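Batch manifest, entry 17 of 40.
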Amino acid sequence: MLRRRYLGGLVGLGALAATAFCATLLVGSAGLPPARALATLLGGGDEFSRLIVWTVRLPRAMAAFSVGGLLSLAGVLLQALFRNPLADPLVLGVSGGAAVGALAGMLFGAGFVTLHWYATAGGSAVGLIVLLLGRGGGATRLLLCGVVLASACGALITVMLTLAAEGQLRGMVFWLAGDLSWAQRPVLELCAAAIALLLAALSGRWLNVLSAGELRSASVGLPTEGARIVVFVCSAGLTALAVIGGGMIGFVGLVAPHLVRLGFGTSDHRVIAPAATLGGGTLLCLADLLSRTLAAPRELPVGAVMALLGAPIFLLLLRRQTR
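Output type: structure tokens
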């Protein structure tokens, strides 16, 4: 009965995710009616409609769903690693490192493709430093190292914004607040989200053991230190990919796992990992839709819209759990 209920919940969540994804394709600020957008998706439409739907909206919708899924899955991994429901991908410092790398590339005048390499190098460097400094000290030491390096990255970002020219400053600030217009080729993030989801679902049993504590892990023969390193590296990689694809977007990795735990009534990672991935993608698709339509024709930073949505949702969840 429980398996049927969980399977039904996942199917329903998948249908909700598909609905949110389609809504981002049909609705926008370009003056294109939803009926014309739907006709374009079905193979019709004029050249302008095809340009808007296939070249602008589809890559952005794919980026929103994949980035949201990556951040949510990273949040699930971190909450299992630290056994702390407040753990979030931003805590790692990897997102800050990727942001520092991308901003450094902008200061040096790097091109669009080269910026991805700058961001990857920055996120990987910070993740490696956190891993080396926290090695052998358990989850608490990893968390403390991540918090300290995240603060250091924040200071470096402030310095870079101070040194930036006026022509660069607006683009930097907008990207830091979350900018999915970077997503010209979001296939990489989408494939990474699918592969990570498959691996997390297959390793859900071991995530359950890891989140139960060191004593339980040792009793079943799970190498705790090695498992921590693997989970940390995977979550750092997912976070770096998400930052490269969409900038600094918070609350997704914190809110989505809580929502699915409450909705499904379980903490089994074999259910939570795929459900949180679908839920995070759905949340960010809705936030992106709002960011494009609330102040049309102007566009709001999707990270700011996600924070405005995520903060009250998280407070309501916290209040309900306290009760």
